[in-house]
Give the backbone structure.
Amino acid sequence: MNAVNDSEASELEEITKGQTTNELKNNLITKQYDKYLSKVELFAQGLILLIAGYDTTGSVLQFAIYMLAMNPEVQAKLREEINYVLGEEEQISYEHLKRMEYLQAVVQETLRMYPPAPGSNRECNSNLNINGINLREGDLVFIPIYSIQHNEEFYPEPEKFKPERFIREGKTSLDPLTFLAFGLGQRNCIGMRFAEFQMHIVIALIVRRFNFKPGPNSPSLPLEFESIMLLRPKEKLVVLAEDIL
C-alpha cells in the first residue's frame, strides 16, 4: 500500500500539470478522486491487472513449452505449420497468426489442461433452481474449472495432450460450456483476445527458432500442482532449448 500511495502522489502531481503519459493509472487515480474508487479499491484494481495480465499468461506459456518438449510429434507439427505460413518472412503479423490453426489448438489444449485459474467464484444475482438445486440471490457459487476440463465425459483421455481436440472436426463436438479457461458470458475475461495474441506470437517466435526437449530432473507426466490463486507445478519444469536457425 505504501508503494501505491507514493506512486499515486507522484502521478497526481503529473496529472495536475498535464504531464502524465500513463493513461491507465491516470484513469484509476482520477476515478478515485471523483469518489468512484477508494485507496483499497485502487490497490485491488492494480493487483488484479498485474496478476490477470502478467502471471496468467506466463503460467500458460511455461506449460505450453513443457508440453511441446514432452510431445515432440506435436512440436514438429506446430513448427511445420509456422514455417509454412511464414515462409521467408521474419516478422509475424496478425494475419499470419489467423492462419495458424494448429498453433491456436496448441494454446487451447494447454489452457484446457492447465487453466491459470483452476476455479472461479460467482455470486447469484437472483433466486433460481438448477437441476433441483435451489440457489438464492447473494449465494456464492464455486466453479471447478480444472475438474470440468479434465472430465472424461467431455474430454476423452483428459491427461493426454491432444491439440486435435480443437481442430475443426473435433472442435464441433465440444460443448462450449466445458471450456472455461477465460470464463463465459458477459463477465468473461476482458483481456482474452489480448492474452491469446500474446501467447500465439510468443510461441510462434520461439518454436520457430528453438527445438525443446525435457531437461534433466524434469518431472514426469501427469504433473502435480500447488495453487493458491494460480495453477503452479510443484516441481520446476526444466527444458533444454536447441537453436535451430
About this structure: The chain is about 50% helix and 10% strand. Residues 12 and 30 are 8 Å apart (CA to CA). Strands lie at 120-123, 128-130, 133-135, 140-143, 210-214, 225-227, 231-233, 239-243. The radius of gyration is 21 Å.
